[in-house]
Amino acid sequence: MVLRAVFAVILNGVLGAHLALAQVDPSSATLLRSSGKAPDRDSLDSSRYTVKPEARPAPKVEVPPPVAPAPKVDPTKAQGSNVKTDTGAPVATETVTAPPVAEPASEPPPTNATPPEMAEQMRDFLLGGSQQSIQEFKELLHPRDIRQNLVEVGVAAGLFYQDAASNFWHRRHFSYGPLISADAKLWLTPFLGFQGEFATSLAADMRGDPAGTRRIPADHQWWRGGILFRKSFGLDRKSPLLTIGVGFNEHRLNVPANDVDRIRTRLSGAAVSLGLQQPTSQTHFWEYGVQFLPRESEQEGKTGLSLRSGTKQETYSIAVWLGSRTVMDRKHQVYWQLSHTLDKTLYDGQASKTDPISGIQPAGVFVNTGTTMFRLGYTWAE
């Protein structure tokens, strides 16, 4: 009985010690373990419990702080000035001296051209340049180029037809017949010249009375003169030539001074023309152009009949032409030309005489005159 009690005490002490040891954490068990015995991996304190690994922070990468941009230094400010950074601390800046900038010299205000300068400008505008430049231009032209000519004189013969339509019989007529003409051109430079032309009808006539029982002679004369400006589009002989003319035109219709049914008329005014010479080869070119008379004046001359178609009048005219020219050489040329001119006149007020056909005095008399010419001519040049 005594032995059973002793055995129970011993067993209770061994099991109690073992259970107490199991409830101790690994670190306390290590302290309780004998220092002379190495820890076994398979023992309770090394395999039953696992130590949680500590999380290691990622290595820090040091980023250099941003470099503040260098402060701008105004070269116009005083030297040795301090510049403040973003932190507010003043930073001594290096003195920068900008190189001096040369300012462009101011142009003097324009002054009026002196008389010699104005004379040179007018000469260049009218003649086409200085004497030296004009001479150099002529040296570049072919010896047989017509722009080398200084003087051109021409004669021509042909036919004409004129028809005047009107609501007043005394101004209504038609006539036709042969004509001859002569013209001349004087070229001061290849770009500037003067021209004059005269043409007259031969043995032309018209109806002399309303019944048509008689015909009277009707002499037509055409006068023309002016200045020519010529523009070249090249140096070779096949280059087109543009001609601008400013001048004065006049047409006269003369009938017998003692005729009792017809009057004389004179139509004149300033004219502007534009012509083109278009070469097809070195020896041939076409000629065509247009002429405009913006305001003409018509005068009615006294014969055996004193007549006025109205109190005042307005007259306008336009002309076109087409032709061909063959250059045998620079000094000899032959040509033909076909032209048509339209003159329109409108009178205000009432005519001074009654119309012999209608028996009334017309008001607002109009006269539309068309003239067609065909000419074949020859030009001599030097």
Sum this structure up briefly.
By secondary structure, this protein is mainly beta.
What does this structure look like?
It is a single chain. The protein is mainly beta and 382 residues long. It has a domain at 117-381: OPCA outer membrane adhesin/invasin (Lipocalin, Beta Barrel). Helix content is 15%, strand content 44%. It contains five helices and 14 strands. The chain has helices at 2-22, 26-32, 44-48, 115-127, 131-140, and strands at residues 82-84, 90-92, 151-166, 173-189, 192-201, 205-207, 215-217, 219-232, 241-254, 264-279, 284-301, 312-329, 332-348, 366-381. The strands form three sheets. A ten-stranded antiparallel β-barrel has the order 3-4-5-8-9-10-11-12-13-14. A two-stranded antiparallel sheet has the order 1-2. The longest helix is centred in the N-terminal third of the chain and has 21 residues, at 2-22. The protein starts with a helix and ends with a strand. Mean pLDDT is 80; it is low at 17-51 and 73-89.
